[in-house]
């Protein structure tokens, strides 16, 4: 059985995801104050790990990219579980094995890979004590990845924390169980700024089709923040597929 997936996001009133672009609250609190409030709320959700996209992790911690040169694809597809010696765990969808890990700091890392990565990259992950698993040949089988995270890593609840593209993939695949929205009293307003869900499909695609939301709670928090929680329900029209993550 796959772990529960809670999409937990901080957004402006217009659904944008870049907090340092937000207008500031009336009470004068800073962007950092709002981010710290969001992080504190994340801890209340008791997730076993946070699942994010490769660009999000590189923006936060690791700027450099691994050079695969002309190395052939690996013929080893066994899951590797490093010793979890840190408090926080990040799961990163990185099918092409782009992240060059340096000092892993205060976090454990689990990389979701395709079978196209090189043996040399797997050795790099082992040396850095970064766990990894394979999500099919192209790294797009998200359901399989979740099953491994439940069965091999023992995770019961995972917080899906963006960015918008990976959120859109999980939405389209019908793998989100709950939605937790931390809505700041702020606006962005610029067209094209990433939003909560950013599925990269055709103009006639409806990535949320076959899914309905049930409001389970609404709370006003300090700093005029509103916290909305929803439960996802799949309807009879829903069909599950795998979708490509361009990373």
From TrEMBL:
One of its GO terms (molecular function) is 5-amino-6-(5-phosphoribosylamino)uracil reductase activity. Pfam families: RibD_C. InterPro entries: DHFR-like_dom_sf, RibDG_C, Riboflavin_Biosynth_HTPR. Keywords: NADP, Oxidoreductase. Gene3D superfamilies: Dihydrofolate Reductase, subunit A. Coiled coil: none annotated. Pathway: Cofactor biosynthesis; riboflavin biosynthesis. The keyword Cell division does not apply. One of its GO terms (biological process) is riboflavin biosynthetic process. Residues 3-226 form the Bacterial bifunctional deaminase-reductase C-terminal domain. PANTHER family: 2,5-DIAMINO-6-RIBOSYLAMINO-4(3H)-PYRIMIDINONE 5'-PHOSPHATE REDUCTASE (PTHR38011:SF7), DIHYDROFOLATE REDUCTASE FAMILY PROTEIN (AFU_ORTHOLOGUE AFUA_8G06820) (PTHR38011). This is RibD domain family protein. It comes from uncultured Dysgonomonas sp. The lineage of its organism: Bacteria, Pseudomonadati, Bacteroidota, Bacteroidia, Bacteroidales.
